Every structure is written in structure tokens, then in C-alpha cells.
Amino acid sequence: MKIRNIDLGEKPVLLAPMEDVTDPAFRLMCKKFGADMVYTEFVSADALIRSVSKTLLKLNISDEERPVAIQIYGKDTETMVEAARIVEQAKPDILDLNFGCPVKRVAGKGAGSGLLQNIPKMLEITRAVVNAVRIPVTVKTRLGWDAEHKIIVPLAEQLQDCGIEALTIHGRTRAQMYTGEADWTLIGEVKNNPRMRIPIIGNGDVTTPQRAQECFDRYGVDAIMVGRASFGRPWIFKEIKHFLQTGEELPPLSFQWRMDVLRQEVKDSVALLDERRGILHVRRHLAASPLFKGIPNFRDTRIAMLRAETLEELNAILNHIEENFGN
User: Fold this and answer.
1) CB 297 within 8 A of CB 274
2) Residue 241: which of 75, 15, 6 has the closest Cα?
């Protein structure tokens, strides 16, 4: 699959853009385990043009993680165009437009998936940004606002006509947020529309290597995107890529190996931020990691792990887990 001159190979697996998750350290780790392209956390166009320092930091990308996409969101055309030009100076491989974020503070203000209620504005923003920058522009969106307004099939054509070079579709409506099951049937319908010429990337509930293979085979997508399934499990890319290439499951990764990966996540997070913020940031990965699921009588240890505030405290708990639950 290619996006302009960026060759992502056959059946590429991408790391989804996720707020407070896809920072540089996590992107590099997922890249190391086989992610074919990674995305930054989404960047507020408003904050970017106001030069908010925390937002500007999100534009920091490295050559080691390429190809990398920077994703922006906003509801105003001029603001999005100005932000796109700022992003272009950071030299990402791709600029992605976020028309899919469902959270209230974004969608409720008319940005992200809020633009699914204002398609003319979405298309106006897309056309203007495509015309303003030289790098490839892509879009990530959802099936529609709610079950009664699943508009993605005609919308995909309209976005293509604006000049985007790939489209990622999350198989849920805005109303669903992240609940229920992702519906891939409409993603497949977009892909199989003979009028579509650009790559279609499917997103939503890709949690196992087998499901990844099924999404390629059954729906014909050009690529798949992994989001929440990577929390505390960056090795999912290693598992998926192995299965796609060999048709066989990767031999089980040892408890110790996966524990070392989580420890590295903690170290990287602290190095990127500082001890307090780094530990706060990595908690969601530790909380979500499948490594600890199914361990008997683990509740008190989990609570302690998620309450730890210093590296010394957290490392002591991780040592306790290795000694008592490792195999």
C-alpha cells in the first residue's frame, strides 16, 4: 500500500493516534515491534496557532519513527489551514485531519466527530488544507454521527474529491463513543466502492492477530489501525505481523520478556516527562496490560501499582509481581 510515495508494504498495520498515549517513546516502541506507520497524539489547531508550549511539543518527531503522521483537529477553516502550515514545518510524512474524536470537549464544540453534523464545513476544511500544504493529507473519521446517520459511503467519495490521499474509518458512530462492537461492514462497502481510488484503512476492535487477518480478507481494506489494544501491549504489532506473514501464531512471549517491555515503558515515560508525570502517564498502560489479567488475588497489587507515585515505589511493586506471579 502506498500513500503518494510512502510505501507501507503489504498489509500494513498502523498505530492509531491517541491522546495521552502516542507520545514519542510509545511510538518508537510500537515501531520497534513492527508498526508500519505511527501517528502523534492529536494536536489542537487553536492551541498550535497560539503557540501553546505543551501543544508545540507534540510536533516533536524523530527520523527513527518514520513514516510518521501528525494529526490535527479544529472546527475553523482558517485556523486549520494555519495549523497545517505550522505542522508542515515539522516535516512529518503525512498530515492527518481528525474528524473522528468523539469526546465531548472536542466533538461538543464542533471539531473532531462534531463535524459529522456539518459536512459542508468538513469538506471546506479538507479542501483548504489540501491546497495549503505540499505533504500528503489524509482523514480519520467515523461511520456517522449516530445509527440513523451512517453517511460514510457517500462521505468517503466527497472527501476523496477534496484531494485526500487515504481515509481511515473507525467502525463506530460518534454516539457509540467506544462502546459496542465496531461495524466493519460499511468500511468494506467504502473499500469496495468502484469509485474509490485512495487507500482505505480500517480501525476499531483489532485486538488479535486473527482479527487483523480477517479484516484484510473479509473487508479488503488496504491497512488496519490498532488503537486501544496496544495499551500495555505494544508487542501486539509483533504478534500481528508474524501472523500476517506466516499464518501462524507467534510462540508465546514469556512473562519476564513482557514485564521487561512494561518496565521499559515506565523508564521511557519518566525520561520523556519527569518522575511524577511520567508515572501518571504510564498508569493507563499498566492498568490495561493483558499481562496481569487472570492472575489470582491480584486486586490489591493492581491498586498499589496504580497508586505508586515514585519510581522506587513502582519498581518495588513490579519486583513483587515478578517474584510472586512470574513464570
Assistant:
1) no
2) 15
The alpha helices in the chain, defined as continuous H runs, are 24-32, 45-49, 53-57, 77-89, 104-107, 119-132, 152-161, 185-191, 209-219, 236-246, 255-272, 275-288, 299-307, 311-325
Pairing of strands 6-7, 2-3: antiparallel
Annotated active-site residue 162? The verdict is no
Predicted confidence at residue 95, as pLDDT, reads 98
In this structure, the answer to whether residues 62 and 177 fall within a common structural domain is yes
**Per-residue cell: 117:** 453534523
Residues at the binding site for FMN are 71, 140, 170, 227-228
Peptide bond before residue 290 is cis, with ω within 30 degrees of 0 = no
CA atoms within 13 A on the CB side of 68: 26
Same domain, 78 and 126: yes
Q: What is the tens place of the pLDDT at every residue in 178-196?
A: 888 999 999 999 999 999 9
Q: What global pTM score does this model have?
A: 0.94
Cell numbers that stand for 51 in this block: 503557540
Computed on alpha carbons and rounded to an integer, the radius of gyration of the chain in Å comes to 20
Using CA atoms in the order 7, 11, 16, 21, what is the torsion angle rounded to 10 degrees? -100
DSSP one-letter code for 204: S
DSSP letter for 28, please.
H
DSSP 53-120: HHHHHTT---GGG-SEEEEEE-S-HHHHHHHHHHHHHT--SEEEEEE----HHHHTTTSGGGGGG-HH
CATH of the domain at 164: 3.20.20.70
Total of domains in the chain: 2
Which residue reads 511493586 in cell numbers? 317
pLDDT of residue 41: 93
- Tell me what the pLDDT averaged over the chain comes to: 94
pLDDT at position 236 is 98
Point out the domain boundary residue: 226, 246, 266: 246
